[in-house]
């Protein structure tokens, strides 16, 4: 079997090289996936001129088509987002809106192009809301055709009213770390099951 590849879309509001907790949890997922022979890369979305819209190309210098090419080349897509005001970050919502275009993009058998691809979610924040954010992102990804593995999300939230970010909190091997490893293992297993054995056409 050919090797599997994962792509993290980090939905931090901060451009590189600023520290980003969502990038950190995305890279930790890639590290965990590497234990299952999955290669990977990370794209921080705000480093690119991705336009608002719901098409595959909004024109006028829109850089989503280049990001989309990486999405379509990956076996596993990871959305890593911070929580702001109890919601997925605006960058995450922008990404989901752009992925909405995949509902109209079909292969030769009439299936969405992302059928057979697996999705994971990583969430970080300093307030409660990780389950809510995961649910929103899961629903959107599943709507356009991604498959979600069992326990397909990992998250960290700080103390209520706190000010410590995930990238400042120190290792969490027995909590977030364990969940990250489980999510990665299940995603790799599912991606291998779907690789070359896609869903049937409707």
TrEMBL record:
Name the UniProt record assigns to this protein: Multimeric flavodoxin WrbA
Domain NADPH-dependent FMN reductase-like: 7-148
MF GO annotations: oxidoreductase activity
UniProt lineage: Bacteria, Bacillati, Actinomycetota, Actinomycetes, Propionibacteriales
Pfam families linked: FMN_red
Superkingdom of this protein's organism: Bacteria
UniProt cross-references to InterPro entries, sorted A to Z: Flavoprotein-like_sf, FMN_Rdtase-like_dom
């Amino acid at each position: 079997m050919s090797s599997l590849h994962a792509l993290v879309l980090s939905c931090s509001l901060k451009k590189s090289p600023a520290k980003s907790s969502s990038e950190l949890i995305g890279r930790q997922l890639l590290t965990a996936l590497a234990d299952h022979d999955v290669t990977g890369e990370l794209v921080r979305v705000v480093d690119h001129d991705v336009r608002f819209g719901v098409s595959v190309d909004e024109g006028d210098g829109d850089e989503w088509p280049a990001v989309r090419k990486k999405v379509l080349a990956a076996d596993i897509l990871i959305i890593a987002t911070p929580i702001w005001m109890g919601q997925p970050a605006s960058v995450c919502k922008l990404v989901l809106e752009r992925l909405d275009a995949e509902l109209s993009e079909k292969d030769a058998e009439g299936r969405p192009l992302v059928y057979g691809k697996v999705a994971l979610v990583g969430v970080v924040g300093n307030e409660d809301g990780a389950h809510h954010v995961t649910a929103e992102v899961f629903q959107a990804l599943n709507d356009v055709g991604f498959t979600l593995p069992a326990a397909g999300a990992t998250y960290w939230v700080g103390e209520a009213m706190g000010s410590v970010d995930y990238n400042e909190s120190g290792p969490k091997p027995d909590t977030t770390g364990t969940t990250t490893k489980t999510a990665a293992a299940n995603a790799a297993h599912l991606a291998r099951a779907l690789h070359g054995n896609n869903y049937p056409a409707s």
